[in-house]
Design brief:
mainly alpha; 0% strand
């Protein structure tokens, strides 16, 4: 729908009530490149993708590569990917108890880590760099080692980024 307030209300109804039969449609809506969605609508779409397996991880990564979201939403998206294999059972949006099925794997997320490096690093934002570095550490994505080393070496990054860089490098050790 072209009316952003209608889209937000529909997302709220689908996610919060919940109308579980419509969660897949809500998750797929994240692929629509629109800049008029509010943060709350985007967070519901992101969280709906947590229930979509590898397809959800793919959508979240595409969303992050588009760079259309603010730092808060992008940071939340990276945190979802970093905890993909063991998301908290308490819903991040509503606070409701919605545990996930066992058997989730970081293997669904790992192929996207290197592809997100350029957009995350270009932001220079600790709010994005720290969860991305946690994702690197959790997935042990060795192909981004040089990027992580550069982040550690850059004095302009604060203690949080440099500490997360060091943790990621330690996780990449054999």
């Amino acid at each position: 729908d072209p009316d952003p307030s209608l889209v937000s209300e529909a997302a709220r109804a689908i996610y919060d009530l919940p109308i579980e039969a419509a969660w897949s449609a809500l998750a797929r809506a994240l692929d629509e490149p629109r800049d008029d969605r509010d943060e709350y609508c985007l967070r519901r779409m992101l969280n709906a993708n947590l229930r979509e397996g590898a397809a959800g991880a793919d959508r979240i990564a595409r969303f992050l590569r588009r760079r259309s979201a603010g730092a808060g939403v992008a940071s939340a998206a990276l945190e979802l990917l970093a905890t993909w294999d063991a998301p908290a059972p308490r819903d991040r949006v509503t606070g409701a108890w919605r545990p996930f099925e066992a058997g989730r794997s970081l293997a669904e997320v790992a192929p996207h880590v290197a592809g997100l490096a350029s957009s995350v690093c270009a932001s220079g934002s600790p709010a994005l760099l720290v969860p991305w570095l946690e994702l690197v550490a959790r997935t042990r994505t060795g192909e981004v080692r040089a990027t992580v080393e550069a982040l550690l070496a850059e004095a302009r990054h604060g203690a949080l980024v440099r500490s997360a860089s060091l943790d990621a490098l330690l996780a990449l050790e054999p």
